[in-house]
Specification:
By secondary structure, the protein is α/β, with parallel strands linked by helices. It folds into 3 domains: 332 residues, TIM Barrel (Alpha-Beta Barrel), CATH 3.20.20.80; 57 residues, Oligo-1,6-glucosidase, Domain 2 (Oligo-1,6-glucosidase, domain 2), CATH 3.90.400; 85 residues, Sandwich (Immunoglobulin-like), CATH 2.60.40.1180. 30% of the residues lie in helices and 14% in strands. The chain is built from 17 helices and 18 strands. An 8-stranded parallel beta barrel has the order 1-2-3-7-8-9-10-11. α13 runs parallel beside α15.
Length: 509
């Protein structure tokens, strides 16, 4: 099991889709030197870890179809650039997590180029191959679509070959077959290279539930046992966070071998709640999930997010409503767990599928010719007409950006908010599902958080055992300054309350 590293677990993480973030050389494509140029910005925002989407060579714009696990995509830079990024991040106390794709490669990867040559090729065993009769016998020619793959027919033809290869996500991304001991050793070398030779701090693990196909899915958990053993031997401090896009019950067993997994159930519940303006008993559901996760790993880390690079952006989910965008941030950054911000959420970026349009360029300044601005795609949703760029929001105290920045710094400074292991969370019952309220108990200072999810002002009656919580630490309702004087909350607003200092002193005596 994992060691207790609570002090070193980054409290706020930031996902960067490298191609869209910041251009350093004028080719319109985001790159590693662009990320380096923004490390001070990220440190000032309060980010403590960066998850970089894939930076390996790849024929696609998104880079999830790897052709070489050991080098850097030339569009993004060089290995020396990456090492400078790593050093610069570490100087600022920021960890770097590499997006590692262990489920599949590109058809252009040398392994697959060899594998497709003949059945006798030693690399054939690295992938899944079956004849039509074998596929039909197992009844696996078709599959049900899932949130993370819309492919119905996952078997793909190889010219002049009576066997087909399996590719869950796309015919250009054949799935790897970890029944091959030779493949496992190759992946172990990849892990050791990035952790020891290069020095990354951990991995975000793509498609973790699909490492084995559905007909062999019972093997997926055992693969992560193998994986975590290699990671632990190579670098005991390394952090692993898995993409297990599934319901909580299926996610929980992955905590046996991973430090964290993303909480997709929470992500989608928050989106529904923000649209409907009603609580879904989310605190009770979170507590139930914590109890389940704890059975597999008492030191589980709940990786929480609003959306990521595969989901429609939260700004568009709530219809571009700035107050709801702020409310979403207020909820995310006051719940227990390790929050992951998707680049640009802090300025209210917009985006609806298809995927390229949820990965549009970050807006740094109002200058359409800004050399930092990437232009590999013409944006449909995040434009200078729809979203205020960072430079404008920076000086606006009421901007989305400053809302995020203030909340992040409050989260990092308040022990009750920053606790990640053994999540400190209790429901506060206010009697109306338009209000979402919860308690974050802590020996140093406990907090009560209340959100008004709806479109109308709401009155509330604080429970008797929380009546001393009257000091306002944070509020988006202008009626509330330093002390709670009115028990009502304006639409889409949030408030964080603590007991007065004299009350806390009395408690300790």
């Amino acid at each position: 099991m994992f060691a207790d590293r609570s002090a070193s677990i980054p409290k706020v993480c930031y996902e960067i889709f490298v191609r869209s973030f910041c251009d350093s050389n004028g080719d319109g494509i985001g790159d590693l030197n662009g990320v380096i140029s923004k490390l001070d910005y990220l440190a000032d925002l309060g980010v403590e870890a960066i998850w970089l989407t894939p930076i390996h060579p790849s024929p696609s714009y998104h880079k999830y179809d790897v052709t070489d696990y050991y080098t850097i995509e030339p569009e993004y830079g060089t290995m020396n650039d990456f090492k400078r990024l790593l050093a610069g991040a570490h100087e600022r106390g920021i960890a770097i997590y590499l997006d590692l794709i262990v489920n599949h490669t590109s058809t252009l990867h040398p392994w697959f180029k060899e594998a497709r040559k003949s059945k006798d090729n030693p690399y054939r065993q690295y992938y899944w191959w079956m004849t039509e009769d074998q596929i039909d016998h197992l009844g696996i020619s078709e599959r049900q679509t899932s949130d993370d793959s819309q492919v119905v027919y996952p078997w793909h033809e190889n010219p002049n070959d009576d066997e087909k290869y399996y590719g869950l996500f796309f015919k250009g991304m054949p799935d790897l077959n970890y029944h091959s001991d030779a493949l496992r050793e190759e992946m172990a070398k990849v892990i050791r290279f990035w952790l020891n030779d290069v020095g990354v701090d951990g991995f975000r693990l793509d498609a973790a539930r699909h490492v084995y196909p559905i007909w062999d899915n019972g093997e997926s958990i055992s693969f992560w046992e193998f994986f975590s053993k290699i990671v632990g031997e190579a670098k005991p401090s390394a952090f692993t966070v898995g993409e297990v896009w599934a319901e909580t019950e299926e996610v929980a067993p992955y905590f046996r071998h991973l430090n964290a997994t993303f909480h997709f159930d929470l992500s989608f519940a928050l989106q529904r709640m923000l649209i409907a303006g009603r609580d879904e008993q989310i605190i009770d559901r979170l507590l139930a999930s914590f109890n389940l996760f704890q059975k597999y790993n008492p030191l589980f880390v709940n990786a929480i997010m609003l959306t990521n690079h595969d989901q429609e952006r939260i700004g568009s989910v709530v219809g571009g409503n700035i107050e709801k965008i702020k409310l979403a941030a207020s909820i995310l950054l006051t719940l227990p767990g390790q929050p992951y911000l998707y680049y640009g959420e802090e300025i209210g970026m917009l985006g609806l599928k298809p995927d390229p349009y949820i990965r549009e360029p970050f807006l740094w300044t109002p200058d359409p010719e800004d050399p930092q601005l990437t232009h590999w795609i013409s944006p449909e949703f995040t434009t200078l007409k729809t979203v205020a760029p960072l430079s404008e929001q920076n000086g606006d105290l009421n901007s989305i950006f400053n809302h995020y920045k203030n909340l992040i710094h409050l989260r990092r400074s308040e022990p009750a908010l920053s606790q990640i292991l053994a999540p400190n969370l209790q429901p506060v019952r206010l009697g109306d599902d338009q209000l979402l309220a919860y308690f974050r108990p802590h020996a140093e200072r406990s907090l009560v958080i209340i959100h008004n999810l709806g479109d109308t002002e709401m009155e509330f009656q604080m429970p008797a055992d929380k009546s001393l919580f009257t000091e306002v630490l944070f509020s988006t309702d202008p009626e509330h300054k330093s002390v709670l004087t009115k028990s009502r909350l304006s639409p889409h607003s949030s408030i964080i309350l603590a007991p007065p200092r004299n009350a806390r002193a009395a408690e300790k005596q």
